[in-house]
Amino acid sequence: MRKKWLSLFLSIALVFCFSSSVLADSLQHQKSNVNIDGETQKQKVLLIMEQLSQLRANQLLQESKSGSVQAISTSNQMEASLESQLESLGVEKLTSEQVRARYTKYSAQPLITPPPSTSKVKWYVLRYDSTRNGVTYNIEELYAQGLNSGTNLAVGANGATLYTNKQILVKNLINIASIYTQKAIGAIPVVNLLPYELLFTNNDNVTNNSHVVTHRSLTTVCFSYVKRSDQSDYYQNLSYSSNMYTLAASHTLAGYNNGQPYSKTTDKTNTVYADNYASSSKAVDYFISTTLTGTSFVSSYTFYNHDKSANLKYNVLTPTAPGQVN
Fold first, then answer.
1. For a Cys-Cys bond, which of 54, 173, 317, 323 suits 113, CB 3.0-4.6 Å?
2. Is residue 228 within 8 Å of residue 136, measured between CB atoms?
3. Cβ proximity of 237 and 109 under 8 Å
4. Residue 325's beta-bridge partner residues?
5. What is the number of helices (H) and of strands (E) in the chain?
6. What range does the record give for the signal peptide (predicted)?
7. What is the DSSP letter of 115?
């Protein structure tokens, strides 16, 4: 009887060992896939962060239009769902205090400074590996995303007048308005607002005499830290900083249609990325070649009227270190 129990015990033990070995191999395989597919993983992360930025910017716009803070359960649920998706992709959410505690340990480079305490910014961290010429580098991306008007990552205005008393005959216009963003290579058109998007479909007898813009923008900055995989975290360098922003704008045009007063409001949302935003390749380039931090920023956006004789320009934050975010 004792031999039977011993035999059964050994069989179970062998099965357990085999299962543990298979599980360990599976986990190691998954870990390898994460490393290999780091860029694919990151593209999913960037898409979700864009969705979060759009959700938050539009929420701010609607609050500004209504004149009160709206606790919209649907938006809250969407935000929670998107952050849950980030977590499933390996993104860690940090408080400002956790950012301060972690990044003051990285003292190999003076630019690594902690941000002040604030509840106006969400901080996220994504880690993955990148191999260049047989050398593996650990990349740690710290993202700062603005939440509301209490941070310098947010820009906005209520009822800013683009023009008034212009008496513009709309019939023959190609564009009633446009938005441009400023990048390192010059002013880039973000969107052209066509007459049918802002006015009634039949524009033959429309005379427009004012254009007012209420808008909110939220910036997301990516601070890319790099070290060789055989180095300790002490040697992590802030190698590259870049940004993107989401602009949620409400355009109100007023004038006359067949002699009768009219007013129409249209909302627009756009997300604009700096060239090479959150680029692991650029981060490794700067880590290898220089002690300076590389940057790629969009620095401003401008609303123009149809002939660019009137404009409204707004600057967005272009920080080279986390401590410049507040």
1. 323
2. yes
3. yes
4. none
5. 6, 12
6. 1-24
7. P
